Amino acid sequence: MQKRIVVLISGRGSNMQAVVEAGLPVVAVISNRADAAGLAYARSRGIPTAVVAHERYSGREAFDAALAEEIDRHAPDLIVLAGFMRILTDAFVERYAGRMMNIHPALLPAFRGLNTHARALAAGVKIHGCTVHWVTPALDEGPIIIQAAVPVCPGDTEESLAARVLRQEHIIYPRAIRWWLEGRLRLENGVVRVEGGEPQLVYSDD
Ligand code: GRF
């Protein structure tokens, strides 16, 4: 049976676009914001979309319950968070334990949370990047599936660094999802291994 992927977005949706363009089986795109630019792309590809507007709910529990209901309508095997800017309740995360991935624009465990590129520049790190990981209740802490590292170059701005990292996000997210689709992801003592031994690290100065 063909696996089913639901992607959650809040904005631009370029990672969702990369996943769709990689030919992965995205059956629905759901946003918490009606004005998310990525929704138009999904529609243009004939992918069903839905909006669960967070401001219409009294709190996180109510929002997460509505979101779960919408997700479950599509009977997904995997939930892909792609720039989804809401903190999820533990109950929601537990419901999808082992089948929800996120991409974070930093080399975890460094720079969890927001404004990662500005913080990397302020810290003076010489290497930065992005991480695809399984989602667990602690924010940005789940088992790491793949990371891409990029150099921080002299004269970088938040924008130039973000763009360098984003190019790699678009490469590693589809790769991680394809590994899952092929049934090659294993969790051993909290560490993800890929059957077949493909590198779980990409380095690029592109
Ligand atoms: C990406 O940098 C992603 O890592 C972060 O939010 C951004 C979303 O970009 N979580 P897009 O919506 O996928 O273009």
Question: In words, what does this structure look like?
Answer:
The mean pLDDT is about 95. The strands form 2 sheets. The chain has an 8-stranded mixed beta sheet with strand order 3-2-1-4-5-6-7-10, covered by helices on one side. Strands 8-9 form a two-stranded antiparallel ribbon. Helix 1 runs parallel beside helix 6. It folds into 2 domains: about 1-95, Rossmann fold; about 100-205, 3-Layer(aba) Sandwich (Rossmann fold), CATH 3.40.50.170. It has helices at about 15-20, 40-45, 60-75, 90-95, 115-125, 160-180; strands at about 5-10, 25-30, 50, 80, 100-105, 125-135, 145-150, 185-190, 190-195, 200-205. It is globular and about 45 Å long. The protein has 6 helices and 10 strands; from the N terminus they run βαβαβαβαβαββαβββ. By secondary structure, it is an alpha/beta fold. 5-O-phosphono-beta-D-ribofuranosylamine binds near residues 9 and 130.
Distance between the termini: 38 Å
**Share in β-strands:** 15-25%
Number of structural domains: 2
Q: Any idea of the CATH topology of the largest domain?
A: Rossmann fold
Question: Nutshell version of this structure?
Answer:
By secondary structure, the chain is an alpha/beta fold.
